[in-house]
Amino acid sequence: MSVERSRVLVAVEELIGLLTAGAPVVLLDVLDEPGAAPVDRPRIPGALSVHLSTDFSGKPSPLAGKRPLPEIAALETSARRWGVNPDTPVVVYDNNGGAQASRAWWTLRWAGFENVRILDGGMGAWTATGRDVAHHHQVEAPVAGSVTLSAGNMPVIEADDAARLAREAVLLDARGRAAYVGEPGKAATGHIPGAHSAPATATVGPDGAFKPHEALRAHFAALGADGSTEIGVYCGSGNAAAHAIAALAAAGLPASLYVGSWSAWSADPSRPVAQGPERG
Fold it and tell me: What percent of the chain has pLDDT above 70?
């Protein structure tokens, strides 16, 4: 595993080794919203249930989008409730393709906490080992942590920045192809003019794990994202974009997140929209 990849991802075998050795790992099982899956769904034993909408996001608005950044004090309170200390290793995962876990990873990195990684392959990688799963619902650790967080430690862009990158550098649209193309004649569908269609799902293999380093480099280079110019990423509400940024980071390519993404861009009638398969 490359150094860049090991900073972003943890393989299930390494996670098992850490847990077997008794390392104080905080496991976060990430959902988008409460009620999106049964409370007693299978989890990795000891994992805590967290949600993007309530634990990792602020109040949505047309200007800020569906999943705006959280208040740093609220995120710090949550992280302490999960038992996170300054030196605690944190592993995030989901059972929905990795976008939700990636947004949790990105948000903790944005908040200055670097010892967080995504379980490569998510819950599927764990169940494939044949290891036990748990069904009980936990939302906080037995002992509170003491971590201190600070905002602004991952690069972000706003709408004007996204428009500039689409013209002058590289802007990736991490949504599925159909969302990028849009529906002819239907307002608020399509993509930011000049953006490349780059579905985040193209960065993972059939097993749900991220593709190898060289495959990721080749994938992004074909989109113009080879590290020679700025890279920005957006999606619908910032989740799939965070997944793409995790893949870029694993390949050694830094990128900025347009947090408001399409949910904010399309809410502003003054913003141009391109439809169809071409960049526009």
Answer: 100
